Amino acid sequence: MSAEPIEVTGRTCVEFAALLRRRGLAIGPEQTTAFYAALHLLGQVGLRELYWAGRVVLANQREQYPVYTAAFAEFFGPPAEDDHGLPAPPRDRPLVAVDREAGAPGTPTARPGEPEEEADEARVVPSDVRLLKVKSFALMDADERRRAAALIRDLRPELPRRRGRRRRPAPSGPHLHVRGLLRASLRTDGEPMQLPRRRVPFRERPLTLVIDVSGSMGPYALALLRFGHAMLHTGHRVEVFTVGVHLTRITESLRRTSVDAALRRIGREVDDWDGGTLLGTAVRDLVDRFGGHSAVRGAVVVMCSDGLDRDDPETLGSAMRDLARRAHRVVWLNPLKGDPRYRPLQRGMAAALPHVDVFLAGHNLVSFEAMCTALTRRRVA
Amino acid sequence: MAHPFTSPAELRTRLGEVGYLADDALAMATHLALGLNRPLLLEGENGVGKTEIAKALAELLGRDLIRLQCYEGIDTSQALYDWHYGRQLLAVRGSEDARAADVFTRDYLLSRPLLEALEAGDRAVLLIDELDRADDEFEAFLLELLSDFAVTIPEVGRIVAPSPPLVVLTSNRTRDLHNALRRRCLYHWVSHPDAEREFEILRVRAPEVPEALARQVAGAVHRIRGLGLGNSPGVGESIDWAGALHMVGVATLSREIAAATLSALIKDVDDQQLVTEKIDLVVPSSS
């Protein structure tokens, strides 16, 4: 028990909830009410009880704990540290990056959200298309990039499918739909005239894009982000991560309808854009945090990176091995491969390669089409 | 708000009496869940005792434990209710005027765990286990249940619990649960116990293991979790390991015997190799 009890009024609860909201936790009114009710239930509380009670009611994901703890300390003062102390913040960084306003310094090269890409509509004349398709993303000017974006949007590959579990009514199928049978037979004096069926439908595997955003990868990363956005908005199950110095999950930001608004937001959120690469560490982080998550387990994973890594190649090798064991298929796009003289000799790339199912260039639209074929194709061997 | 415990501390003590050692945060979470009639959502790694807390609460409160194990493809007819089609068909065909026969009444309804728990009200603890294994459509079925303790069956109407049951949901985080569900619940992340609490758990759950050995096991398991394995051992596994060590008849933990009995603790060959390599760190030479 902490020393002196604290007076907490309804107004305090509301103000604390408002502070948490400003820090990026989506707190509904019913949670604020529950917080107040909890304090009422507990009666006299010390700072530590207040901390635990608030955390149980207001922070509803582990990632929110550090944000909550910081806000609590700011609002109520630090909870007394006694024998048990407070839990150390979880080792992963908080996912909610907030209060980092638009004031972030703009960097050159193709950071998302530059004015060039506002027009969504681009008319594509077939004769140019062939030239555009073989041109590297890095060499395109603004106009070409816009037309390429329209082509990327129309790629629409089919993802591999797996058997679902839930039976659904269907025109034909191996199982009897008893509920429908009973309904239908009521109309005919309990005499079943037709036998409705059910079957197990197939479900699509999720697609996960892991995109390197370090220095030289900018234009390729943007093209792939556009691809991810298009896939997400045609109703596929897509997860998107960026890797640079660390791993950032950007799926939620990509959900915005406008691709440019989404890219602008990602540009603000991803703080290692154009930084260096700790690819091995970032992939290891992906496996550790999402290894059992549907974003990795049984998913089709597309990595896009030039394989230049400041980590020990052993780190990347073992992380890729674990990734390949969990994922359904791993596709690696390396824009350097677009040059016919390229050989995957950097040690990081060489360590990763044995664990990659399909190795492609991904530097222009033709190789994006090849990627789509690779996504659709059944697993070989 | 009638529940028999006046403070989280008391609840913690009483849980200890039925063999579950909770920490401050978990005691607070369960205390509030009982007092505010809110479902309690527990997330955490495998084997940290998420399911056990529901069992312990059921025992402590003297209520029935109703358990719904989730799996991919579970739907209303397995979780909530189903119609007794055979009886319905017979009733329709047996009656004079099939049109008049009303076969969509409570009499023809089969209760599945969720409906059963609703009708039992505060005589039940409902455990919805490993919710992340069910597909996301299934969460939508739960929303009405979790916020109002009621379900609506189209043909019958709304069935409301006479008094709210205690609901515990667990998730291993193999997929993200929807925020609509999270907001209806109290949330607690269950982490692995520290060495001291694990020692206490070993004393309670494996009383036959000598105290000195239990303390060494708790310390070693704590250090093993710090190695960054693919699958960290859970509490259940450390109890198994302590039991195994006791069975082979050792009084203190040595490196050789630890490496030899590792199969009771670590269930992955890569992890076993890693621990064997670093056995010097896990079992310090002083012991």
From TrEMBL, chain A:
Q: Where is this region: Disordered?
A: 101-124, 160-179
CDD domains referenced in this protein's UniProt entry, alphabetically:
vWFA
Q: Which InterPro entries match?
A: UCP010256, Uncharacterised_CoxE, vWFA_dom_sf
Q: Which PANTHER family match?
A: BLL5662 PROTEIN, BLL5662 PROTEIN-RELATED
What is the protein's given name? Answer: VWA domain-containing protein
Q: Which organism is it from?
A: Pseudonocardia hydrocarbonoxydans
UniProtKB/TrEMBL annotation, chain B:
Which Pfam families does UniProt cross-reference here?
Answer: AAA_5
Listed Gene3D superfamilies:
P-loop containing nucleotide triphosphate hydrolases (3.40.50.300)
- CDD domains xref list: AAA
GO MF terms listed in the record are: ATP binding; ATP hydrolysis activity
The AAA+ ATPase domain is annotated at 36-205
| PANTHER family tied to this protein | MAGNESIUM-CHELATASE SUBUNIT CHLD, MOXR FAMILY PROTEIN
**What name is this protein filed under?**
MoxR-like ATPase
